[in-house]
Structure formats: C-alpha cells, structure tokens
Amino acid sequence: MNNRLKSLLNSLFKFCLAGGLISWLVATGRLDVNSVSALFRSSYFFIGFFFIGLNLWLASERWRLLATPQNVPAGSWEMFRLSLVGVFFNYAMPGGVGGDVIKAYYFGKDHPQARAAAITSVILDRVLGLYAMILMAVFIMLLDHTRVFAQPTLRTLFIILILLAAAFSLGFLSLFSRRIKSRGWVEKILGRLPLSAKLLKLYETAHRFGLLRARVLTALALSVFAQSVSILFLWIAGLAAGFNDVPLLTYFLVAPLGFMATAIPISPAGLGVGQAAFLVLFNLYLGHPSSLGPVVITSQQVMTAIFGLAGAFFYIRRKDRVSTDELERATTTENSP
Q1: Mean predicted lDDT score pLDDT of the chain
Q2: What is the pTM of this model?
Q3: Smallest Cα–Cα separation from 103: which of 120, 117, 84, 123?
Q4: Which of 17, 156, 247, 304 is the most buried (most CB within 10 A)?
Q5: Does the pLDDT value for residue 233 go beyond 70?
Q6: pLDDT attached to residue 189
Q7: What is the DSSP string of 255-323?
Q8: What's the gap between Cα 266 and its chain centre?
Q9: What is the residue range of 235's domain?
C-alpha cells in the first residue's frame, strides 16, 4: 500500500469517526445545536472571539520561543500566520501531514538556518503543552480534593495524572540534564530502539533546547496562560448557552482532562472525540446528565475553525505553497536519518 493511499484511508477514517460521534450526540440530544449557536448570536461572541484569538497567539508565541533558539529573526506576526495555517490544515487536511508539520515545513523554508530545529520545536511545543495540561489538572484536583477522593473514577484519574506528571518530569530531567547527557545513558537506550538514528538526532536537538532553561520555563508558563484563556472561553460559551449555574472552577477541573483527549490525533482537530470526552467528564463532575460539555467544546472548535479560515488565506497567498503530497514527501525526506 503506497503512502498516498495510506494518507487517504487515514483521512477517511478520521472524518468518519468524527462524523459518526457527532451524529450520535446530536441524534441522542447530547449535543444541542441551538445551544452551540447561542454564543454566535449573543454579545458574548466578541469576548469569545477575543479569547480564542488570544489563545492561538499565546500558543504561537510559545512555539516562537522554542523554534528560535539561535536568535533566528522570526517575529510574532510571522509565527502567528504560520500557526493559523497549521490550524487550517488540522481541520481541512487531517491526513499524513498535519498542521504542525506544515507550519514547521514552511518555517524551515523561510529560515533555512533553523530547518533542523523546526520539527523538534513543534514536538517540544506539543509536549510542553500537554505537560501544562497535566500540571493544571493535578493542581485543580488538589484544590477540590474532597470531591475527587469521594468518587472512585475521579480518584483513579487523579492517580493516573500524578503518575503522568512524574513521568513527564523525569523525562524532561533526562532530556535536559547535562550530567545525564555526559554519562551517555540516554544514547545507549535510544541506540537499541527502532529508528535509533532519528531518535538520537531528535534527542540531540531537544537537549540543546533544554539548555535554554529560561525559554523552556517561559514556554511552560505561556502554556498555562493559554490553557486558562481557553477555559475562560468555555465558561463564556456555557453562559451564552444558558448554563449559568456551573461555577468557573468546574470548567478548570474538567477542561484540562478534556483537552488531553482532543490532543489524541484520531479525528480532525479533536472533532467528535472532544465532544464525547467533555460529555463524560462534565457529567461525572456535575453528577447528572448534561449537554454542557459537548456544547462548549463544539463552540470552541467552531470559533477556532473561523481563525483557520484566516490560515487558509495566508496559505493561498504564499507563492511557494506546494501540494500536500509534495509536503509529505519533503518532510519525510528531511526527517530521514
């Protein structure tokens, strides 16, 4: 089976999964389309639009910090445009080449001196974002420990998150530590794994990033800020839909867990998967059935897709744009050992 057919089947599976889940939610009344549209018909729209724009800008700034470790002259507006192009491709072309790969590819074309670090910066950007979600979830669950420890499911989730936080922390320690690097333990382990050459190259680049601790810590802080802004948007969407009795803290409890589910690349931009995850999590925390979860995450996805249209505009304006097939071949070649 050639790569093009694999990419096509992958895209078809993702669209079918997303469409099937959303259709089921709508058919069973768990996703109320009228409640979703309430945000876009109310005065809350402009606040929500601002929050999503701010969230995307903060995420692009985080990536800029990680993608420009050698003083590459890349400005905030340039990185924001590339990030919007990535958003567009996450929604429109969820095949073998995702939005992260595409924005890294064009960043490498615009700045050849940073091409080797482009893909690594995107991976590290995603990992730091996930790490921030885990830390936020652990912190908020500790604040509401009475409810968390009273429910077996929440208690199990809390234990899993604690283990994940510990694993990520140890992973970053191993990745960034000069002492561990000097002893060669990581290289020996990676050298025995499949694709060892790629993994060793990735480790070397990521280790150089880690030496810039101030940048990494700033990127982590930006992740927490961006996630908080995104959660505020969910709260605004809930208010617009009439869920006025759900406190803001509940959103901070649920959203980091839900965002982790949407980060799993098994549907376009988390469509369908996000709705299902937010449905289960909100119902678990509220203690009764509610359509709140699917409504607020759908509102966020629709608003983000609007910004993705701007990304489509910036992509079309590029004179050096290439087809997704060419992008897939190019990125595969660049990342080969």
Answers
A1: 85
A2: 0.87
A3: 84
A4: 304
A5: yes
A6: 84
A7: HHHHHHHHTSSSSGGGTTHHHHHHHHHHHHHHSS--SHHHHHHHHHHHHHHHHHHHHHHHHHH-TT---
A8: 13
A9: 3-334
Q: What is d(CA 191, CA 213) in angstroms, rounded to the nearest whole number?
A: 26
pLDDT 10s digits, 103-114 = 888 888 888 877
Angstrom distances, CA of residue 89 to CA of 60, 122, 173, 250? 15, 15, 33, 32
Query: Which span out of 31-35, 83-87, 285-289 was modeled with the highest average pLDDT?
Result: 83-87
**DSSP notation for 94-114:** -SSS-HHHHHHHHHHHH-GGG
- For tokens 């990520």, name the residue: 168
Quote the radius of gyration of the chain (alpha carbons, Å). 20
CB 52 within 8 A of CB 233: yes
Residue entry with tokens 């079309």: 316
Residue 170 has pLDDT above 80, yes or no: yes
For residue 15, give both structure tokens.
Answer: 């669209």
Tokens of 100: 């992260």
Amino acid residing at 136? M
**Rounded distance between C-alpha atoms, residue 331 and residue 153, angstroms:** 41
Token readout for 19 is 């469409």
Asked if 298 and 36 count as a contact pair (C-beta separation under 8 A), the reply is yes
Over residues 101-143, the pLDDT tens digits come to: 888 888 888 888 777 778 788 888 888 999 999 999 999 999 9
